[in-house]
């Protein structure tokens, strides 16, 4: 057994949703209906609403990230007739962009039990892919310095509702404070200067969900 076999995990699948809710009361039945379907497919909430800080670009008012055992499981959960019925409950009361992302085969260490993780949720439209590589290398160095773990970055994507940018990234940090500090760090600001020349992005920092999980 090589080192990679000991340290890597099967790539996960993710729902990344951005939602504007126009009627919280009307939206409520959807939030109660989606949990059993998500749980049946092995999903768990990483982000489920909550206050966020918009560092760049635009964002909808409610943001959700759900992790599944695989990309196939994430797609199957969305296509499940029970979830399609749940969608009908929310559509009159909200507008959503929802994508399914493939994660990377990377270690996924758990945060300390007494600390809620922080996340970057990033959507990027790249104008110059070659120059973007310089940003990506420096950004990876910056996030590693703050113990960030890239959960999804550049893998397969399926846009199942609304619209999306071409590149989508989800990064987990040990805490919300670490996520903010990384963005504001000198090394990431150098990376950001490169990216702003070659891409447009929406980047928000948001706390993880620490409530009850489905199933």
Overall description:
- With 215 residues, the protein is an alpha+beta fold.
- The protein contains seven helices and ten strands.
- The chain has helices at 3-7, 24-40, 71-79, 81-90, 129-145, 176-184, 186-198; strands spanning 13-21, 44-48, 53-56, 62-68, 94-102, 118-126, 149-153, 157-161, 167-173, 199-207.
- The strands form two sheets. A five-stranded antiparallel sheet has the order 2-4-1-5-8, with helices on one face. A five-stranded antiparallel sheet has the order 3-10-6-9-7.
- α5 runs antiparallel to α7 (186-198).
- The radius of gyration is 17 Å and the shape is globular.
What is this structure, in a nutshell?
The protein is an alpha+beta fold and 215 residues long. It has seven helices and ten strands.
- The Rg value, from CA coordinates, equals 17 Å
Backbone shape:
globular
Structure class? alpha+beta
Low-confidence stretches: 1-6
Please give the largest β-sheet.
5 strands, antiparallel
Order of helices and strands: HEHEEEHHEEHEEEHHE
Query: In angstroms, what separates the terminal alpha carbons?
Result: 34 Å
- Overall mean pLDDT: 93
Strand-residue proportion: 25-35%
Total number of helical segments?
Answer: 7
Q: Tell me the helix content.
A: 25-40%
The total strand number stands at: 10
Side by side, the strands of the main sheet go 2-4-1-5-8
